[in-house]
């Protein structure tokens, strides 16, 4: 069976104040940490691929290592602005990057691929944005309004009931966007 691909961001494990800042529905820091682990592992299997778009943990390195060891999947980290503890355990990640241009086999597309730009931060334009390339981001914790005219959106946990989002779910969201190529077929 082919592994599934997931995207997520902004877990902020070990960060008590994020409950208040982002109005998360958790009673305590332990409740949040345990629920985030549970929801991650409900969706992600051992062999699945996860692109985490930053801010995994604000806890200390030993705490962060324990959390990372409990999460399923092969994790690719796109660095956010709170990665100090996670970067003390680099062997847990398949890759660590600031920015990544991911290509996924997509038979529905004329070229057989879907390109996705992965960055912790939202961009207004990106490489290939006028050609149907998607951009996924985190950082904003659902505070940015979704732009239905752009093939981008926030994959952070605050926007998705604290679950990672699958490639198939991303694809369905992108199909509902009102984006069209700015140069018609000439742009492709």
Automatic annotation (TrEMBL):
<keyword id="KW-0378">Hydrolase</keyword>
<feature type="domain" description="Calcineurin-like phosphoesterase">
    <location>
        <begin position="31"/>
        <end position="141"/>
    </location>
</feature>
<dbReference type="InterPro" id="IPR029052">
    <property type="entry name" value="Metallo-depent_PP-like"/>
</dbReference>
<protein>
    <submittedName>
        <fullName>Phosphoesterase</fullName>
    </submittedName>
</protein>
<dbReference type="Pfam" id="PF12850">
    <property type="entry name" value="Metallophos_2"/>
</dbReference>
<comment type="similarity">
    <text>Belongs to the metallophosphoesterase superfamily. YfcE family.</text>
</comment>
<dbReference type="GO" id="GO:0016787">
    <property type="term" value="F:hydrolase activity"/>
</dbReference>
<dbReference type="InterPro" id="IPR024654">
    <property type="entry name" value="Calcineurin-like_PHP_lpxH"/>
</dbReference>
């Amino acid at each position: 069976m082919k592994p599934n691909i997931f995207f997520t961001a902004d877990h902020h494990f070990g960060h008590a104040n994020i409950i208040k800042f982002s109005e998360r529905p958790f009673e305590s820091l332990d409740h949040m940490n345990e629920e985030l682990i549970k929801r991650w592992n409900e969706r992600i299997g051992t062999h699945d691929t996860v692109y985490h778009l930053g801010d995994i943990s604000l806890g200390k390195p030993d705490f962060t290592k324990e959390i990372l060891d409990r999460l399923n999947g092969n994790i690719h980290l796109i660095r956010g602005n709170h990665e100090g503890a996670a970067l003390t355990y680099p062997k847990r990640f398949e890759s660590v990057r600031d920015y990544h241009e991911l290509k996924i086999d997509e038979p529905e597309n004329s070229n057989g691929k879907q390109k996705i730009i992965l960055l912790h931060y939202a961009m207004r334009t990106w490489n290939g944005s006028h050609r149907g390339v998607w951009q996924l981001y985190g950082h904003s914790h659902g505070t940015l309004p979704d732009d239905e005219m752009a093939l981008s959106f926030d994959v952070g946990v605050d926007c998705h009931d604290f679950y990672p989002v699958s490639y198939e779910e991303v694809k369905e969201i992108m199909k509902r966007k009102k984006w069209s190529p700015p140069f018609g077929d000439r742009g492709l």
